[in-house]
Amino acid sequence: MSHRPPAPDGVQQLRGLYYDTAGTAFPRQVPALLNLAEPERVLFGSDYCWTPPALADAHIAAVDAAESPAEGGTWRSLTTANAKRLFPGGSR
């Protein structure tokens, strides 16, 4: 976990939330989000069944191509670990 400077009122509460990256979150939105939230607070959502399959595939490809904020991992492994930590009884 990185150390961030003290936050203005209200921002600290936002840092405690979890964020779902459904839609086109890369290459711009997630790096901006990481200025606020730790990578451990980021999840992946596909918006399936509202997103056409080809677009969902493009979103996943963008996630897989993005540079991971964690050494030795990928965004896919990070968001999977985050979801398993939040929902330990979920499907495997």
In short:
InterPro entries: Metal_Hydrolase. With 92 residues, the chain is mostly helical. It is 38% helix and 4% strand.
Structure description:
- Helix content is 38%, strand content 4%.
- It has one domain.
- By secondary structure, it is mainly alpha-helical.
- It has four helices and two strands, in the order αβαβαα.
- The protein is globular and about 40 Å long.
- A two-stranded parallel sheet has the order 1-2.
- Helix 2 links the parallel strand 1 and strand 2.
Salient structural properties:
92 residues; mainly alpha; two-stranded parallel sheet; 4 helices; 2 strands; globular; Metal_Hydrolase
Please describe the topology of this protein.
Blueprint: H1 11-15, E1 19-20, H2 29-33, E2 42-43, H3 53-65, H4 75-86
Parallel strand pairs: 1-2
Uncertain parts: none
Question: Mean of the pLDDT scores?
Answer: 84
Structural class: mainly alpha
Give the SSE order as H and E letters: HEHEHH
Largest sheet: 2 strands, parallel
Q: Indicate the proportion of strand residues.
A: under 5%
Overall number of domains = 1
Strand order of the largest sheet: 1-2
Instruction: Assign an overall shape.
Output: globular
How many angstroms separate the termini? Answer: 26 Å
**Helical percent range?**
25-40%
Q: How many helices does DSSP assign?
A: 4
**Any idea what the radius of gyration is?**
14 Å
The count of β-strands is 2
